[in-house]
Automatic annotation (TrEMBL):
This is NAD(P)-binding domain-containing protein. Residues 7-200 form the NAD(P)-binding domain. Belongs to the avfA family. GO terms for molecular function: biliverdin reductase [NAD(P)H] activity; riboflavin reductase (NADPH) activity. Coiled coil: none annotated. The lineage of its organism: Eukaryota, Fungi, Dikarya, Ascomycota, Pezizomycotina. Gene3D superfamilies: NAD(P)-binding Rossmann-like Domain. It holds the Pfam family NAD_binding_10. It comes from Penicillium olsonii.
Length: 215
């Protein structure tokens, strides 16, 4: 499988890339700074890198024309972020992907973006309130990401929503919905990376937005 990756320099992204290369997949990485990619990933013969930002239209076109089978984004806004660079970037990038026959996208989101099958609970209402009050930019960005991806026609989209992240080891993952009773708060970054790689290969959640957590 050939995977176009956004967010490869982050904590989840680095682990995802390592797992993918170990399984024999090819990677095309779209990054702001090549130097932030670990050397063993950067120099791997199965890795290709495009350096640029989501505002750089010419680089987006080149990356979209890389011949990948799927686009995976592990990028997320940091606490206190301002503006909507991811939302705006996806609006520019996804049509370019589709025009170059990359018709499947798998993108990080958060529980603040609700699915119609979610059940509202005190835990998630509190979490959303916290985000809206203390990091409104981050909250608005993730709502924008969810709306852009889920409303885009002509692609096979998937959103995977995560709650609290830890640096713990890889562990079994529950893919569920909010309020199901199995929707625990935490998931390790290694577990996210493994679940996303498995879903990229197995395509079990196309057109859906599961909440993923450790069991």
């Amino acid at each position: 499988m050939h995977i176009l990756v956004l967010g490869a320099s982050g904590a989840i992204g680095r682990q995802f890339c390592e797992m993918a290369l170990q399984e024999g997949h090819r990677l095309t990485l779209f990054v702001r700074h090549t130097s932030k990619i670990p050397e063993h990933i950067r120099i791997n013969e199965a890795t290709r890198i495009f350096e640029g930002t989501l505002e750089a239209d010419s680089i987006l076109k080149e990356a979209a024309n890389c011949g990948a089978d799927i686009f995976v984004s592990l990028a997320g806004p940091s606490y206190g972020t301002q503006g909507t660079p991811l939302t705006d970037g996806y609006q520019r990038l996804i049509p370019k992907l589709a025009s170059h026959r990359i018709n499947r996208v798998l993108i990080l989101c958060t529980p603040s973006f609700r699915d119609k099958v979610d059940v509202e609970t005190w835990k998630w209402r509190t979490g959303e309130w916290f985000m809206r009050i203390f990091s409104p930019g981050q909250y608005q960005e993730m709502l924008g990401v969810g709306n852009v991806v889920a409303s885009t026609e002509g692609i096979q989209w998937g959103l995977f929503r995560v709650g609290g992240l830890t640096n713990g080891p890889e562990a079994p993952v529950e893919a569920t919905y909010l309020g199901s009773g199995a929707d625990k708060t935490w998931i390790s970054r290694a577990s996210v990376a493994r679940w996303v790689l498995d879903e990229a290969r197995e395509a079990q959640w196309i057109g859906k937005m599961p909440y993923i957590c450790n069991k």
